[in-house]
Amino acid sequence: MTPELIIELATALLGTGGIIALFLITEKKVAAQLTNTEKVNEQWQKIVAQKEKDYLALNQKYESKPDTD
After folding, report:
1. Residues 6+ apart with CB under 8 A from 19
2. Residue range of the domain that includes 32
3. Cα 17 from Cα 53, distance rounded (Å)
4. Rounded to whole angstroms, how far apart are CA atoms 48 and 54?
5. 1 lies in some domain
6. Domains identified in the chain, total number
7. Are 63 and 55 in contact (CB under 8 A)?
8. Which of 7, 12, 13, 33 could be a cystine partner for 18, CB 3.0 to 4.6 Å?
9. Do the domain assignments include residue 33?
10. pLDDT in tens, 19-67
């Protein structure tokens, strides 16, 4: 790349808001990743809550069985 081409590219990016566009694209990507992480966390919380219910039900069933000793 020649120095003139580099200067032309830099001028084009700065003049048309290319740097700002690149920043905004990165920001949107991070926001999308955070949203995805929140959804995954919610799903895991639902799974954990269901497993806790299952555990309590099995524990209660086990404790209510009479000893056969």
Report:
1. 13
2. 17-64
3. 54
4. 10
5. no
6. 1
7. no
8. 13
9. yes
10. 677 777 888 888 999 999 999 999 999 999 999 999 999 999 888 877 6
Q: Give the pLDDT score at 38.
A: 97
DSSP letter at 63 equals H
**6 within a domain of the structure (yes/no):** no
Residue 18 pLDDT greater than 70, yes or no: no
Residue located via tokens 């209660």: 60
Q: Has residue 43 been placed in a domain?
A: yes
Structure tokens at 51: 């497993």
18's CB contacts (< 8 A; 6+ apart) are 12
What's the token pair of residue 49? Answer: 């809550």
Q: Which two tokens stand for residue 34?
A: 């955070």
Q: Which residue has the tokens 């700065």?
A: 14
